[in-house]
Backbone:
């Protein structure tokens, strides 16, 4: 080869390989993409956290007198700049500011929010005697106290009445809880016993016929039981009606700033306070009270107010059941593919299918779960075990069991792939050493391979839990509902009711954000529920990560 002393142009200019050859532009590109992704994630978390944390902080209430002398009152939500529309052929003077106020008093005005332009305001004030009343229905009421009717006495609005009112409201709330417990727990228990007696008689009729001696004996026994239960029901209903009449006699009358009056029961008041007279510690008390209600109470006002305890419980139960179902099936499948199956075109096809399953839209899993689990397996279970309940389905409709199985199927590819990777990471020398010592293949897998692969298996399970807890589309078909009156776990035998529908945080966010009557009123609940869902997922993952790290320290370091 002839050497003419000439070098390629890049080498002649710098004496070094070009940046593209060394890959530096791509390193910077990849680093920039990673930084952009981190910034987006942090920004999203900061946005949700900021809007969720501040949502329960009490805001001042302003009374606004308009240019036409009409008066309104509300909480300031936000302000923005806008360009007024030209009037009478004259161009607008310039940009103006308008503010969105939450008015409350929806049952009187049929209006939740109102935009108010600064150009239309005559005067604005923040009086200290104005009240904000959070109610069970119709949202908040903003106005002033007119009177308190305590059944046999009537209190006029004075400073002493305001002090007594909080005590009366607390007593009324306790009475409401007692009535609700009486109706839901005690009366509900009697109703369930009546229904069980009816179903047991129908089962005897299906098994032996209505002309059999067994049916006649069961009918006689059922009649005695029904008479006894109906007597208990009448006594409980009478007591509930007595307490309800007593509750209805104790009311509070408020008046809006426009002079319209509203009378409500004392027990319908959830919380009342003077927002403009609250000090810092008073605001902190209201803030903590709202958070406590959010975490332990049931939803109200079409899920836009109240708490999300049923959704928290449903999400936790569903996620734990999904993890318990997907872990053994995913690990067993990966063990067979990695340790036992001969590498062939069929095994390759199975692996390709598993990888493709991870890309199937989640709604497809929901349709499969509804058809196969609910209508197929559930319908068969109803025919076999609950024929007396038909045509009302027991397992033949959506429930927490079918939802957990559907999510387990959805997340199985994640667990299988992660488990296979963890198994392949175990050194082959460890297997060979165990076999050389006389251990069988199963003993090698059980005592050598699986312990070392457990941290990787836990990683796959963590990813599965994180995805399953946030799914919405498949759950809408296989068990999740807008409002579940009964939890899937309670103190009634058999204590765990896998056939019941349930609530979950993911669907709660969708329902409040897109299905509520007023999207603006649901925004705070959307951010708070999103923050709570992220916290629940983080807590579940943190527990799994702690277990994974302990396993890693125990086994990966070589301590068997």
Residues:
């Amino acid at each position: 080869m002839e050497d003419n002393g000439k070098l390629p142009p890049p080498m002649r200019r710098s004496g070094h390989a070009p940046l593209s050859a060394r890959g530096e532009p791509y390193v910077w590109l990849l680093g920039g993409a990673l930084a952009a992704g981190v910034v987006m994630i942090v920004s999203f978390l900061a946005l949700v956290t900021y809007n969720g944390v501040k949502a329960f902080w009490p805001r001042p209430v302003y009374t606004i007198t308009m240019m036409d002398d009409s008066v309104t009152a509300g909480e300031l939500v936000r302000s923005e700049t806008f360009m007024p529309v030209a009037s009478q052929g004259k161009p607008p003077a310039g940009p103006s500011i308008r503010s969105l106020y939450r008015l409350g008093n929806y049952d009187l005005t049929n209006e939740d929010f109102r935009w108010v332009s600064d150009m239309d305001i005559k005067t604005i004030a923040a009086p200290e005697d104005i009240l904000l009343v959070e109610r069970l229905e119709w949202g908040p009421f903003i106005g002033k106290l007119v009177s308190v009717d305590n059944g046999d006495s009537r209190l006029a609005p004075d400073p002493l009445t305001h002090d007594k009112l909080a005590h009366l409201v607390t007593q009324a709330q306790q009475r409401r809880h007692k009535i609700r417990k009486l109706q839901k727990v005690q009366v509900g228990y009697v109703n369930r016993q009546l229904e069980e007696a009816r179903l047991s008689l129908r089962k005897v009729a299906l098994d032996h016929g209505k002309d059999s001696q067994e049916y006649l004996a069961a009918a006689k026994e059922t009649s005695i039981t029904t008479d006894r239960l109906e007597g208990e029901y009448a006594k409980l209903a009478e007591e509930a009606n007595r307490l309800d009449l007593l509750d209805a006699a104790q009311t509070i009358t408020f008046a809006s700033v426009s002079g319209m009056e509203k009378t409500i029961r004392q027990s319908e008041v959830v919380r009342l306070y003077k927002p403009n007279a609250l000090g810092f510690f008073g605001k902190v008390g209201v803030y903590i009270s709202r958070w406590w209600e959010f975490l332990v109470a049931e939803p109200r006002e079409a899920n836009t107010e109240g708490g999300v305890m049923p959704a928290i419980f449903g999400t936790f139960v569903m996620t734990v059941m999904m993890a318990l179902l997907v872990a053994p099936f995913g690990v067993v499948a990966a063990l067979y593919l990695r340790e036992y199956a001969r590498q062939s075109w069929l095994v390759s096809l199975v692996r390709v299918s598993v990888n493709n399953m991870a890309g199937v839209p989640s709604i497809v899993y929901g349709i499969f779960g509804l058809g196969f689990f609910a209508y197929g397996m559930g319908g068969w279970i109803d025919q076999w075990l609950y024929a007396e309940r038909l045509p009302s389905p027991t397992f033949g409709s959506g429930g927490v069991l079918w939802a957990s199985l559907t999510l387990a199927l959805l997340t199985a590819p994640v667990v299988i792939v992660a488990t296979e990777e963890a198994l392949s990471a175990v050194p082959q020398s460890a297997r060979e050493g165990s076999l050389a010592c006389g251990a069988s293949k199963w003993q090698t897998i059980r005592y050598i391979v699986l312990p070392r692969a457990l941290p990787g298996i836990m990683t796959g399970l963590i990813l599965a839990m994180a995805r399953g807890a946030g799914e919405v589309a498949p759950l809408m078909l296989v068990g999740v509902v807008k409002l579940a009156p009964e939890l899937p776990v309670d103190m009634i035998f058999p204590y765990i009711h896998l056939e019941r529908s349930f609530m979950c945080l993911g669907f709660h966010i969708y329902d409040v954000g897109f299905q509520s009557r007023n999207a603006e009123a649901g925004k705070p609940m959307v951010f708070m529920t999103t923050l709570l869902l992220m916290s629940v997922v983080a807590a579940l993952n943190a527990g799994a990560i702690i277990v994974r790290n302990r396993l890693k320290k125990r086994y990966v370091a070589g301590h068997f």
